[in-house]
Amino acid sequence: MSNDALPPQALADIRVLDLSRILAGPYATMMLADLGAEVIKIEQPQVGDGTRAWGPPWVGPFSAYYLSINRNKRSVTVNLKTEEGRAIIKQLAARSDILVENFKVGTMQRLGLDYDTLSALNPGLIYCSISGYGQTGPYKDRPGYDFMIQAHGGIMSITGPVEGPPTKVGVAIVDVTAGLYAVGAILAALHHRERTGQGQYIDVALLDAQVGWLVNVAQNYFATGEKPKRYGNAHPNIVPYETFETADGFLALAVGADSQFQRLCQVIERPDLWEDERFRTNAGRVTHRHILIPELQKVFRTRTTQAWMDALLAAKIPASPINDIPAVFADPQVQHRRMAQTVHHPQVGDITLLGPVPKLSATPATIRTPPPALGEHTDAVLQELLGLDEDTLARLHEQGVI
Question: Does domain 3-213+333-398 have CATH number 3.30.1490.20?
Fold first, then answer.
């Protein structure tokens, strides 16, 4: 699809100066880019975002990791260690709506690129800092990585087998959710600026993000004072809500209402379980899960996963097979929702990327351009936005500024 044929996009008039790298920041700016924002990705000359080297696997010269979070962006190389490089960033910030960075706390102040400095040049600037532990507090100077934060923030203590070790989530979920929180805050700040003309500073911490999505587990602790425990694939507040072994594999069952449990008992031909007063309510099933779950496990082992799926879905009981990743992308619903999309890359040909999640009716999120090569747009952006001529660009390249 040519850019001329693209539908209007919600953030088409917004420019983002992206000084972030690795995952949380680039994930946030990719979401803004999907919604139409112009995202200028600032990278160190010759080196670039650290994820460029995080292979294998590779697609041509690009790591798969880098490709996963950098579509719809323009790459500009600027050496922040040089005075002229920092001057370029100041000029770009003066012409941008949003700046996102995830350097160690204090780095931007040392570079003279902190919020106070840049907002003096551009009062409408929305400046978002993403860090491990936040810009304040006793741990603010600690480095923060997803795995460490999963350990620190409690999610590992409630994830994994009941009798097994604490377990991390299989994707860098803290980075991803911190990016999501950042996007939400940025959009709120844009709305505030629309009313007042004023930008603001946003402080997003990976630790805050992880603690924030403990949700009902945290509330259970607040309500009882008791330390939450691991339930494996089970749920602390809903029963039956877990995986069950079948004759040829596993399925996930999510019975969230008493009426669903009644239908389940009919499907599995165990009306006695519904007639048992201990299991008539969810509260009773939670209390007596140690009795109910073994009975259900015995039943589910008698038929194949597909046989159970057919019967459960026919009775409108939420259930799912345990898909591996190839099965996910072969699934007709995932394909219908275009969660895998192909885009042409001038260096490596067609590549497949994850599709945007939100489906907006009037201003849809789109993949317009592939993840850029390092510095691919340096000269074009500096000519367009700062008016630098070819002689100046050649000198800056030669001096290692860009």
Answer: no
Nearest 5°: phi and psi at 381? -65, -45
Return the half-sphere exposure (C-beta side, CA atoms, 13 A cut-off) of residue 116: 5
Task: Report whether 210 contacts 187 (CB < 8 A).
Answer: no
3-state secondary structure of 158: helix
SS3 378: helix
Tell me which amino acid residue 124 is: G
Spacing of C-alpha 73 from chain mean position: 17
Domain ranges within the chain, ordered by starting residue: 3-213+333-398, 241-321
Rg (CA), the chain: 25
Q: In which order are the strands placed within the sheet that holds 250-254?
A: 241-245, 250-254, 319-321
Cis before 45 (ω within 30): no
Joined tokens for residue 149:
């934060």
Distances (CA, A) of 267 to 234, 259, 273, 276, 316: 21, 13, 12, 16, 11
Digit-coded pLDDT (tens) for 311-330: 999 999 999 999 999 999 99
**Cα separation, 343 vs 3, whole angstroms:** 13
Which CATH class, in words, describes the domain spanning 241-321?
Answer: alpha beta
Is the model's pTM score more than 0.85? yes
Is residue 175 part of the annotated active site? The answer reads yes
Instruction: Write out pLDDT tens, residues 214-248.
Output: 999 999 999 999 999 999 999 999 999 999 999 99
Catalytic residue among 49, 97, 146, 175: 175
CA distance 151 to 108: 28
